[in-house]
Design brief:
Blueprint (H helix, E strand, L loop, with lengths): L1 E11 L2 E7 L5 E3 L2 E10 L2 E10 L3 E11 L7 E4 L9 E3 L10 H5 L19 E5 L1 E5 L4 E7 L6 E7 L4 E7 L4 E2 L3 E12 H12 L9 E5 L1 H4 L5 H13 L6 E4 L20 H11 L3 E6 L3 E3 L3 H5 L6 E2 L2 E2 L1 E5 L4 E5 L5 H17 L4 E4 L15 H16 L3 E4 L4 H4 L5 E3 L11 H5 L8 H10 L9 E3 L14 H14 L2 E4 L8 H8 L8 E8 L2 E8 L2 E7 L14 E4 L7 E4 L11 E6 L7 E4 L9 E7 L2 E6 L8 E6 L3 E5 L2 E9 L2 E7 L1
Parallel strand pairs: 16-17, 16-28, 17-18, 18-24, 24-25, 25-26, 26-27, 37-39
Antiparallel strand pairs: 1-2, 1-6, 3-4, 4-5, 5-15, 6-13, 6-14, 7-8, 7-10, 9-12, 10-11, 11-15, 12-13, 19-23, 20-21, 22-23, 29-30, 30-31, 31-34, 32-33, 32-34, 35-38, 36-37, 38-41, 39-40, 40-41
Helix pairs in contact: 7-8, 11-12
Bound molecules: 4-nitrophenyl alpha-D-galactopyranoside.
Amino acid sequence: MNIQKGFIRYRAGKRDYTLSFTPGVPARAQGLEVTSELLPVDHGWRVTATLAPDGPLSLLDIFFEANYRFLPDDRIFCNGFQSWTESREFAPGERIRPLGRAGRVFKLDRFGDYDIYPCPGGRGTFHSHTYCSIRQKTGATTLLGSLDEETGYTIFACDAKRNRIRVVKDVEGTEISSPATLVDLLLLQGREDELHSAYFGALCPGFEARGPATGWTSWYHYYTDISESIIEENLSALERERIPIQLFQVDDGWQAAVGDWLDIKPSFPGGMEALASRIRDRGFRPGLWLAPFICEKSSRLAKERGEWLLRHEGKPVAAGWNPLWSGTFYALDVYNDEFLYHMHNVFDTALNRWGFDMVKLDFLYAAALLPRNGKPRSAVMAKAMRFLRRCAGDRLILGCGVPLGAAFGLVDYCRVGSDVAPKWEDRLLRAVNYRERVSTANSLASTVGRGHLNGRVFVNDPDVVMLRREKNAMSDDERFTLFLLNNIFGGLIFTSDNVAHYSPDTMRIYRSLFPLREKEGTRVSDSGGALKIDFAIGENRYCALANLSSRRSAPVLDEGLYFNALPAGDPAFTAGGEKIPLRPRESRCYLSVKDDFFTVSGTTAHIFPGSEILACVQNGDAITVTQSDDVRNDNTVFIRTPGPGQYFINGLPVQAGQIEEGLFVLKASL
Ligand code: 9PG
């Protein structure tokens, strides 16, 4: 990897100029001097470019050209523009395709970077926002990352055929008249995990993420059709079933119109303050959905406060089109102080008067559709995010539909993929290459792809799990795969299901997520056409196998002994080293059984068997096993012994049985 040249296009007076420079060598052209530094840092280099203009000038383009030799087995991680944008590893033979023409008719281009970066679309071409990494088969990784996104979104455009990477800054609209450092990049080489720690550590020094959390949201079952009684029904069901979730969030549909946050829908006659207290009375922290930077065309705000709308050549700027609302919705102007004052008041009302503890802030990309006030789009986005943090104070923010770089370190939780849907894929939207499309397959790709962000810059929200059978076209395998992968890679585990409607089998799977524990050292590889995911929880090691394809697959577990119980519910020990046949979209999660005797070899209550056990202590023939208070399934524990014989588990006598040659196990209910 080698940066060769930088280019700056700018306008001074009425003329356009181009200045090319070599990093480390000062350069000068008409009215502009550039100093670019190459500084050695741990794992690689930091590259900066500082522009010193003689007088005011407008920037048109800044980019760097680098060489990189792509290998056929490389995996190129591309971070999509915003929360919903497909973000995953690509093989050099793949490509990122441009949005189809039909997509623009429905204003789908507004949701992504389609109007910011012209996607070339050829085989071997990819682009990634803010950072990008290339992992060789050996594990050796190169990470390129921007340390300053406020000076312009940074796009890493890879061309695997030509062995080139172009680093582009989206500086459109930037005006400068004094020296400014506009490029600040890290180019690192090493192991993937250490590079992630180095890069995100440099981006958000001292950042401490909140812990993972569980919750319920109204969207993925009721959509905009919510009411006080639906909320009440779900609160009662969760309470009756003793589901130990922390957050209960009212999603889109409580307000009269998007933008009219102080006008409540008639289906909430008791008002929002009473609603929040009802949620709190059941022991949950109340959360509320807001889309602070947009309004529906038909909203009162759009009609009465036309001056708050973002305008281009006098006309309101559409931020998208949504069939679930009244169609077109507009962006609001974050440089209008009156509007900001109004929004501040909305937050104050929701948080302090109504008493919500958490806000899900959605469609945030809309704040920065255009450069403003001599600043690039990304600076507008950064200003908007800081404003939201100030408005929310120390309450929880779940960011959604947001360019991720602007959310790093500023929100508590953040959506890291598209919306899931009660079906696996949306073939039509996939065919037009709409990378923000609502689709479970699309969501899961990003949940896996962006798993490394969890706990480093915020807590990842992979979107909800959907286990219900009604109003859901997903198969049992698809529903379990979504449940398992969200639980491995995500830090926020929400559902919208009405748990009162769960069958006992479904309830057993849902309850297996409690207690929610933090995962460590997650590593993803390919095995026999499926994903093989190794991770640890405390002292326990796990291996999950997930077949995301529509064909059968046959991954292989490493050598050793494994335990698995869900989803079927029949506990079984399996030897590694052999192929595990998986149906299309089937997944399983295995506990790697420890060699040590008198340790927990398996349990049946938890999706990650044994992670719910707090202690297992042996004293002669007496074994004491303690489990978390948040366990919600009946639990059977399996404990390995050196041979046959009688033991006491929590005071009750148990006979060790032989499961297979050399494997003696005690089995007891907890
Ligand atoms: C409420 C929803 C939920 C959901 C959010 C967001 O591409 N699109 O047209 C598109 C529309 C809606 C959407 C995502 C994408 O959903 O992610 O959780 O809060 O808004 O309206």
